[in-house]
Specification:
The complex is a heterodimer of chains A (561) and B (324).
Chain A: H1 2-21, H2 36-39, E1 45-50, H3 67-74, E2 82-84, E3 90-92, E4 107-108, E5 113-117, H4 132-144, E6 157-163, E7 166-171, E8 215-220, E9 224-229, E10 242-247, H5 251-260, E11 265-266, H6 272-279, E12 284-299, H7 309-318, H8 321-328, H9 364-373, E13 377-378, E14 384-386, E15 389-390, E16 392-396, H10 402-417, E17 421-424, H11 429-436, E18 444-450, H12 458-461, H13 483-494, H14 498-515, E19 518-531, E20 535-536, H15 548-552, E21 556-557
Parallel strand pairs in A: 1-10, 16-17, 16-18
Antiparallel strand pairs in A: 2-3, 4-5, 5-7, 6-7, 8-9, 9-10, 11-19, 12-18, 12-19, 13-14, 14-15, 20-21
Chain B: H1 2-30, H2 44-53, H3 60-72, H4 86-121, H5 126-140, H6 143-162, H7 184-218, H8 221-228, H9 233-263, H10 265-270, H11 276-285, H12 289-317
Helix pairs in contact in B: 1-12, 4-5, 4-7, 4-9, 5-7, 6-7, 7-9, 9-12, 11-12
Classes of the chains: A alpha+beta (561), B mainly alpha (324).
Amino acid sequence: MKQRKYFFMALLLVLAIVATACPKTEDPGPEPTKTAAEEGKPGGTLVFAAEQYPKCLNFVTSCRSASWLHYTALLPTMARFLTADADNNYKATDLITKIPTLENGLVTESPFTVTYELNPKAKWDDNTPITGEDVKFTWQAILTSSKSVIKIGYDKIEDVTTEGNKVKIAFKEPYAPWRDLFNMTHYILKADAFAGKPDVSDAMQTSIGFAGGPFKLESFSESEMVLVRNDNYYGKKAFLDKVIFKKIESQTSELTTFKTGEIQGFFPQPTTELVEQVKAIPGGEIGVKPGTVYEGLWFNLDKFPVNDKAVRTALLYGLDRQKAIDTIVKPVDPKATVNHCLWNVPQNAGGKWCNKDFPTKPDTAKATKALEDGGWKKGSDGIYAKGGQRLVVPIATTAGNVGREQFQTILQAQAKEIGIEIKADNSDATTLFQTRLPARDFVVGMFAQVASPDPTVTTNLHKDLIPSKDAPDGENYYGWKNDEASKLMRDSDKEVDDKERIKQFQEMGKLMAEDVMSIPLYAKPQILVYNSEKLGGDFNFNAGQLAFSDLLRTWYFKKAA
Amino acid sequence: MLAYALRRLLISIPLLILASILVFYFLRLTTDPAQALRNPRMTAEQVQEVKHAMGLDKSGPEQYTSWLTNFVKGDWGLSFDYQAPVAPIIKARFFNTLKLMGIAVLLSFLLAIAIGVYSAVRPYSKLDYTFTGMSFLGISMPIFWFALLIQLILGFYLQQWLGRDEPLFFTSGMHRPGDPTFHLIDFVRHATLPSLALTIQLVAGWSRYERSSMMEVMNADFMRTARAKGLKSRSVIFKHALRNALIPLVTVIGIDVGALFGGLIVTEVIFSWPGMGSLFTSALAVGDYPIVLPWLMITAGLVILLNLVADLLVGILDPRVRYG
């Protein structure tokens, strides 16, 4: 009797689960004829997967190093002066009336000042105005917080003053990357929220009590964060009621949860397989953009055999990089091409920093000539040699990254054709980036550099910043020692006139190409997966995802969700 | 028995300290927690400032002893990565893992006994062969494979088959997005798939132990005596055989459960279950030793404690075993 009782209890539980799971079987709801936007009825809760979920929220402290913190919790909720457009150009946010320039007089060279004109309608979510006092407080908080990790640039500020809706930032000396201050991933704090105490080190760990963007952070936990629409936003308001970023680390799980409808979008690592799988899902749509992450072949210029310019030139002309890109990258990004420039310059500001110095087409005759002029002789095995040493080039890339390993295999085959043996010398990502690179324990590295809209390369390429006892934290792992380029780097960091600065960078690009100090490959594509049957809006996402919040506020559900 | 238990616990303390020293030095040698904080335009002095703020400019022994002293006092410090006190982070993760493990271990224990007993009582029957085949499959296939398969079949395909807007069993998380309050049915719908993935692995191994142990006991002299006395078959199996056959299984469960507290990495990552395993991997990757070391102390401590519990249970199950 007792057993039967338990059986019925278990049966009831199962039925309850099934019943809860099936609430819509009998009631399909009203037929959606118009979109939420067309009806002017905002609403719905979007669930978006976050692959690298942040651990804490304070952008002043080390929490800021998690890039997904910005994409999820901060960019959609915080006020800042500038953002980036789809081509990674600087763009004014709703907070200001225009971008300061020398031409419009909002930037002055001597003394060096930058003035932002605040939008008179700009206000926090509690309807209080966003003022110059908030900007000044933010500057003080960044400089004086004991755990602040972003003081660079802010320490060059002399004072922040307010006159009407104008906020004037006076600098102690010219500072070319001034646009990065209070912008991009540096946000403006609400002074009142901190009771006038500028040390914000221990604040904003798991909550932020204010918002200056189209959304407001409602809650943050170890597995999800909830944003709600900021109904007091001074710009174009969002349609969605809520956006939930849910921590899902496994890409396979992201795809399954997307299939089941538990999430409506995600930013995955681009792979051919994933693209095919998403296309097979009803409503599965993929947006592709060349990202701001640039793949390249990075030489250690002090290591044999790439310490010989002839070898570097032979690789530059001998490898058909476009052919490899066609095989590996084009299935994801049909527009992928070889970059003309190194570092972060190809896509930024429509490529104005780039002078197209690097050749992109192969020329095996030039490759052969470079080697033979350099004293290399072809051996009986078809591989060149010099001084008894065969021309073997070890290339290190991230083991387990299928796309890169396949790319490497294609380059191996191409190099053999021109008498160079490429050897795989791969390590896992942590070992490669945290151990081998700082120790300069590589001959050629094949990996990506991440760009910001400001094109400075001083830390990475200045001759005085090659890691050594004198420069233990230098990041010129490549050992490029070019006096002229190093001077240009220092000068360009103080040049506030963009026209002059562009010339300096273009000159630097020529020197990079002359030395063949590295070989550019391609801009790594970024993809956005979303359900086009359920979601509407603008999906032309920004390459660096910096303007994700601008897209997010245009999204709406095509039927009530 | 109390003296035995205390002695075992005292012996484990130096073991824990040794393990923590090894892990600490391994981490400090291979990772730099300040690396992630470096700004491309930081000067050497500024990098040094960051290291100083994190206490990373002190010598290794100084860093370790400072951590250990505070740990013993109950101050587990701040996580580099979370920039928050360590104790609440680990506590939340511990209970999340406990929930998942509790369900899986209980289910596995019952299923393993049922399968093991049936297979031992009816050896070489069709069902025994079926269970044996399934066990080998469970043991030989990696858990991520099962997890993904379960996610796809019981998550996606079952939803399609039922024609529903949302899956019967959710494939990720512990609760509905945006609703962290506990609802039993919602919890069951979220916990079913990860528990099942774990249960398959556990049952596969444990049922084999139980089967072989039961078979050995079934042929023992005292079993013949019990049958000769005219006891009912059910009584012979469950009162006499099972109690003795549980002894090796209890020991194995003691070891497995302790190890599982930190070993659910794959299951937790695939089902987005915020537990101890995923906490460890993320902390290890960035050298966050204020998280890794207490994590190690807790998981290692649990292995030791659960082994001790298993030993004590063996004493209860088998009165011949006495501790002194």
